[in-house]
Amino acid sequence: MTTKPRIAILTGYGINSDIELAHSFNLAGGNAERVHLHDAIDGSVKLEDFAILAVPGGFSFGDHIASGRVFANRLRYKLGDTLLRLREKKTPIIGICNGFQVLVKLGLLPGTEPASFTQTCTLTYNDSGRFENRWCYLKTDANVSSVWLKGLSQIYLPVRHGEGKFIPGNPELLKELEANGQTCLRYCNADGSEPAGFPANPNGSTGHIAGLCSKDGLVFGLMPHPEAHVLPTQHPQWQRDGQKAEGDGLQIFRNAIEYVS
Amino acid sequence: MLNRIEVAQKSPATDSPAHRILKAMREDLGLPATIAEAAALIRVYTLEMDLNPADVERIGHDLFCDPVTESYAVNAPAAIAALPDFDWLIEAGFKPGVTDNVGRSAREGVADALSSTGRKLVEDDKVYAGRQVLLKGKLTRDQAVRVATTLLANPLIETWQVMARADWDAKTGIPAQSRKVVVPHQPSTKTIALPEDPAQLQKLSDEMLLALTLEEMQVVRAHFADAAVQAERKAAGMPLDPTDVELEMIAQTWSEHCKHKIFAADVEYTDENGKTETIHSLYKTFVKAATNAVRPKAPWLKSVFTDNAGIIAFAEGWDVAMKAETHNSPSALDPFGGAMTGIVGVNRDILGCGMGCKPIFNTDVFCFASPYYDKAVPEKLHHPKRLMKEVHRGVKDGGNESGIPTVNGSIVFDDRFLGKPLVFCGTGGLIPSELHGKPSWQKSIVPGDRIVMAGGRIGKDGIHGATFSSIALTEASPVSAVQIGDPITQKKMLDFLLEARDLGLFRFVTDNGAGGLSSSLGEMARESGGCELHLDKAPLKYAGLDPWEILVSEAQERMSFAVQPENWEAFRDLAARRDVEVSNLGTFTDSGRFECYFDEKSVCRMDMDFLHDGNPKMHIKAHWKPPVHLDPPAASLAKRDINADALQLLGALNICSKETWVRQYDHEVQGQSVVKPFMGKENDGPSDAAVIKPLTDRKEGLVVSHGIVPRYSDIDAYHMAAAAVDEAVRNAVAVGGEPGKLAALDNFCWPDPVESEATPDGQYKMAQLVRANQALYDICIAYDLPLISGKDSMKNDYGKGATKISVPPTLMVTVVGPMPDAQKTATIDFKKAGDLVYVLGTTKEELGGSEYFAGLGAVGTAVPVTDFAANFALYKKLFAVIQQGLARSVHDCSDGGLWVALAESALGGRLGMDVNVALEPVGKLELEVSDLALLFGESQGRFVVSVTPENAAAFEKLLAGSAFSLVGTVMADNALRVRRGTRTLIDTTVDEAFTAWRKPLDF
User: Fold this and answer.
1) Chain A residues touching B663 at Cβ < 8 A
2) Which CATH number fits domain B2-167: 3.30.565.40, 3.40.50.620, 3.30.1280.10, 3.40.630.30?
3) Does A43 reach chain B within 8 Å, measured CB to CB?
4) Which 3 state secondary structure label does DSSP give B241?
5) Would you list the domain boundaries of chain A?
6) How far is the alpha carbon of B674 from chain A, nearest alpha carbon, in Å?
7) Model confidence at B467, in pLDDT bands (50, 70, 90)?
8) Which residue in A16, A230, A237 is closest to B403 by CB distance?
9) Any chain A CB within 8 A of the CB of B669?
10) A97 tagged catalytic
């Protein structure tokens, strides 16, 4: 009997999508455990003991000052060495919504080589100036090689954020990220074409970018919520078009579990 | 030592908060773009602590500033970087002592940033957050002040300053300021003699804001004059006169808000025929009696009326709790903070229900005056548009930051809500039926258990909240009644509470809401029979609070626990690990007394029986005289352009799309949603109710709906209440809820119904309340619908005399119920061309109180009369239809009648329709129902259902015996055609209807 890979789902301080994220990893064949950040910092739980690390969505520290900032700083000051070791060990890491904001502000996304805590891009206020809960079509870049997105081309997921507008530190960096396949997920129209703007691109992101990965594809972050679409009945039109076998987000978690198994 | 850090956006492209300010200046204040030219927002952080310059710099760089989009300046202005040619500067920040959530998180960030240096923050090290707005444009000072006070700051809780460019020093900018609270006061307890003279006694109540009546004050006076009481006090070394702690505690315990004196009163009710009867307690006679009558048919009721919320069985091994509250008065004064405390407060009701339920959804219903209100707004009130934006923002932030999805709600408009908005907030919770081998809804306290308070600290915020909400709002309403919620502190407490619950670390939990510790511990002490509370052990936000203030403060985010002595250390240690402050404040006893100490000195020694049962019963008169209203003249109705009216009606505030507002709520966190607030082809068809599936490994669903129709009270509050219940049940049934398995919550919001000089029409308003209760009883019995929880708010008036504004009597009904299979549901949108369109239920000539008549400025006469028997029979059949999957779409008919239901079904599916309303069931065949009533009348108990042609026969068979008929077909084209026989009544398009319906509240 093979044992299921253990996934650490960080929680505490206003993170709020941890339970459904744990459920999603479990549905995909994993063994997810919610780990309170405090317990990871004081060492009573060791993040190195897990095969995958996930930073869920929520409002860590109320998103005060800037979304994800205080949580990111706490990780950097209190768990920085551990995170760098996880990168060396090639542990897959995912950040969703607030977790994505945390990873970007921490500098792990899009990331440097070797990994460091240097922030090069940001996620800031939506152009609308509003938090919105809205379903969006997303497609993967053609040259993407992230383990998290294997086999996926176009998916439909909800966004639920007020600060999801992606801005790269400079235009050259964006080109480099695109060439590397790091601008892995973009908002699109229902037919896959490029959006004219709001609402298909819900926040005004540069290049309609919704998700990023590290150069090695192991660290992946996105504003939309794949854990909010693992069941067919979570799709807002499930009563019109009939139920799919599973929600579009589930494959993302399955990919990571297959990678570490 | 003060350091000030200002953070500015490098480019206007990322300054969307400033864009919204500019938009509001233009749209809400009517300032043209030439005057409101440009804006920029600067975030201001003030650090009050000893720091070396290098650390300040590092904190600015690492914590406050985003390296990609922002720049920062330490002890220097960032204004030039943000908007070089600004003309006005406005700065705003909270007054000292007001909850500053950003400042609190920033302090944690500062502590983390300093951790590598070994510098640890101490109690007195503070961080304050503020904001500065720069404006470019030719504003006058008055205009700039208006921007500051009506858009940017609430002067009640925030300080603000407006500075012209010429007065601004580019070198120093705005200097750093401390906001440390200094209360130059040595805490003390006063003894208060109660004068015999009635006028003096009443004056004492008024001046102390006790909100007690003369009769109540006299009962209190008699109690302390009682020989036995005096002897006991003497023996215990207490003064014979009451202390301020004792008087405040009595006032809080006996407040209308906590004691529901009007619902408990003896009412002398005279009906329209002059027949008089005495009703001993509306609550017992109607509300409780209805539940008791239904109880034998509802074995799934677990806990009703006794706890913070009602609890019903959900699925095997799981129960669901539900509670709805109002937070009207605080929201009128500080709409953001008031509404936020409303939602996080009701979350705590769920956390404190049974052994602690996990909040799984929120609901919210708001009542406002029109945002387009263009007359003068009375003193101390906010313009309805600002009120709406800020109440919405408060509930949105409170719910979103707590990670609880907002799944159902509505916004109701009537200009009488100018005086007081109604802000209903509801929360549902989930709990295992058993915990540690005991039913989870049961809890108890044993003498010797520790009194433990957890969560936020106590300040002067929210003092007199309970008594304040029991009186009318005036220009003199107290500032201290306002609080601001802190969702993150509460979220940490929520996570901790559930963890401690599962470890079995406490014996009892309840929330600290209105009345603070006085209320929560007052109730808890009844479990053991007394308590010994040490008020000096309570953690304070700042020193200088008197003992009575500590006892009644409504500072937020606090729960009270009874912890077994042997668990205290484990409880405290877990709390420390979860960053939750807990304090042991004393011990529960069985002394029969509520005793408080401050620095070992006894300051309160109250007999529990007197405290809880000593208040005198009110006697209230009620006289029902049906009001006289007229229908609009028949001749003018005959001339109406029905097609134009139909489009106009879609844009009525009570009917048009609320999507812009609802989308800003997180309605999907926790991953349970099955029927979301908006469904349909483009995700914008408004659902009748929510369906969630709270348990990932089970198929059961939970339906959540509500009903509210204040307009009908203008004709008869009986039919208002009946229709509110019918609407709530109908909405639940429309998405697959099972009639007879639903539970309801009643929230009454009334104007003061007690006759007095200020309320000369009290007898009529009280009669409306009696009639609403009669209806509630009648329909709950008819629908096998138990009431599991409820609340009343009885003083929803502004001002006195000629300027008095009273809300229309309003009953808001929430319905929840388990569904055997969450997938057996229906949504409102037409699915496919060729499907058959049916109308279920009978249409009568009932335009009285309708949205259509309201649009014509009329009330009318024939209010919709709910036919309990016919409706309940139909609902059971529709449940069977949905169970068997025979309905392609189901939508209830409510505001705006059949036309609006048809149009919304079509818009939701982006499909056309061809409907002949001559085929509608109209009851008696001989009765001629007008075109207007057929289209826009609001007869209760009706639905629009679409069915595939293949299923039509089976569908019709299930409905046999109820009123229903086939009225038309879903069409593939864009046309919405409604005719009566061969006569075309409405001929429009999906696009035209959509625009009319989508636009009015899209701001």
Assistant:
1) 132-134
2) 3.30.1280.10
3) no
4) coil
5) 6-260
6) 6
7) low
8) A16
9) yes
10) yes
Q: Exactly one of A161, A208, A225, A235 is catalytic; which is it?
A: A225
The 10 Å CB-count burial string (b at 16+, else e) for B651-678 is bbbbbbbbbebbbbbbbbbbbbbbbbbb
CA distance B246 to B605: 7
CATH number of the structural domain A6-260: 3.40.50.880
| Cα–Cα separations (whole angstroms), residue B267 to A247, B255, B277, B719, B766 | 57, 19, 8, 20, 9
The yes-or-no answer on residue A227 being catalytic is yes
Measure in Å the smallest separation between the Cα of B351 and chain A Cα atoms: 16
**Which of A97, A121, A184, A213 is the catalytic position?**
A97
Q: Are strands B810-819 and B743-749 parallel, antiparallel or unpaired?
A: antiparallel
Phi-psi region of B579 (alpha: psi -120 to 50; beta: other; left: phi over 0): left
Nearest CA in chain B to A67: B66
pLDDT, one tens digit per residue, over B529-578 is 999 999 999 999 888 899 999 999 988 889 999 999 999 999 999 999 99
Q: Considering A136, A208, A227, A235, which one is annotated as catalytic?
A: A227
**pLDDT per residue as tens digits for the range B395-416:** 999 999 999 999 999 999 999 9
The helix (run of H) or strand (run of E) holding residue B144 is helix B141-147
* φ and ψ at residue B234, rounded to 5 degrees: -60, -45
- The reply to whether CATH 3.90.650.10 applies to domain B826-1003 is yes
Listed in order, the ranges of chain B carrying CATH 3.90.650.10 are 826-1003
Alpha-helix residue ranges (DSSP H) falling in B53-121: 53-59, 79-82, 101-114
Of A13, A61, A119, the CB nearest to B67: A119
pLDDT tens digit string along A207-233? 999 999 999 999 999 999 999 999 999
Mapping DSSP onto H, E and C, the string for B734-803 reads: HCCCCCCCCEEEEEEECCCCCCCCCCCCHHHHHHHHHHHHHHHHHHHHHCCCCEEEEEEECCCEECCHHH
d(CA B19, CA B5): 23
> What span, in angstroms and rounded, lies between the C-alpha atoms of B306 and B288?
11
Q: Name the closest residue on chain B to residue A37, using Cα atoms.
A: B578
Chain A residues with CB inside 8 Å of B60's CB?
Answer: none
Of B14, B487, B693, the CB nearest to A124: B14
Is A36 known to be catalytic? no
Q: Which of A38, A61, A79, A120 to mutate to test the interface with B (most CBs of B within 10 A)?
A: A61
CA distance A38 to chain B (A): 7
Given strand B318-326, what is the order of strands in its sheet?
B301-303, B310-315, B318-326, B422-432, B358-368, B406-413
pLDDT band at B464 (very low <50, low <70, confident <90, very high): confident
Q: Using the structure block, give the residue that is written with the tokens 């004081």.
A: A42
B367 CB-near residues (< 8 Å, 6+ apart): B411, B412, B413, B414, B417, B421, B422, B708, B710, B749, B807, B810
**CB-based contact, A216 to chain B, within 8 Å:** no
CB atoms within 10 A of CB A196: 8
Report CB contact under 8 Å: A73, B19: no
Residues from chain B contacting residue A38 (CB–CB below 8 Å): 577-579
Helix/strand/coil percent split, chain B, to 5: 35, 25, 40
- How far apart CA B612 and CA B583 sit, in angstroms, is 26
Q: What is the 3-state secondary structure (H, E, C) of B320-370?
A: EEEEEEECHHHHHHCHHHHHHHHHHHHHHHHHCCCCCCEEEEEEEEEEECC
Tokens of B118: 């070994």
Q: What residues does CATH 3.30.1280.10 cover in chain B?
A: 2-167
Whether B683 contacts chain A with CB within 8 A: yes
Q: Chains A and B: how many Cβ contacts under 8 Å?
A: 185
Least CB–CB distance from B64: residue in A61, A65, A125:
A65
Q: What are residue B282's DSSP bridge partners?
A: none
